[in-house]
């Protein structure tokens, strides 16, 4: 999932450089959402790992 967030971030940067602000904004939003989902899942796995072991 982090890979997809990085891909959308790169798309956002490239689109911003070429002036496609709508595409850049959408890609940035998708990258942020995927990144925060990744962080939440990571924290949950850490907590569950501590509780189990």
Characterize the structure shown.
It is built from two helices and no strands. The protein is mainly α. Helix 1 packs antiparallel against helix 2 (21-52). The protein is rod-shaped. The two termini are 25 Å apart. The mean pLDDT is 88.
Key terms for this structure?
53 residues, mainly alpha, rod-shaped
Layout of strands and helices, then pairs:
Layout lengths: L1 H17 L2 H32 L1
Strand content: under 5%
| Count of helix runs | 2
Low-confidence stretches: none
Distance from N terminus to C terminus (CA atoms, Å) equals 25 Å
Question: Could you give a quick summary of the protein structure above?
Answer:
92% of the residues lie in helices and 0% in strands. The chain contains two helices and no strands.
């Amino acid at each position: 999932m982090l890979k997809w967030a990085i891909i959308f971030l790169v798309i956002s940067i490239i689109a911003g450089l070429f002036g496609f602000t709508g595409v850049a904004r959408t890609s940035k939003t998708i990258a942020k959402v995927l990144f925060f989902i990744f962080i939440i899942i990571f924290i949950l796995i850490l907590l569950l790992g501590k509780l189990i072991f």
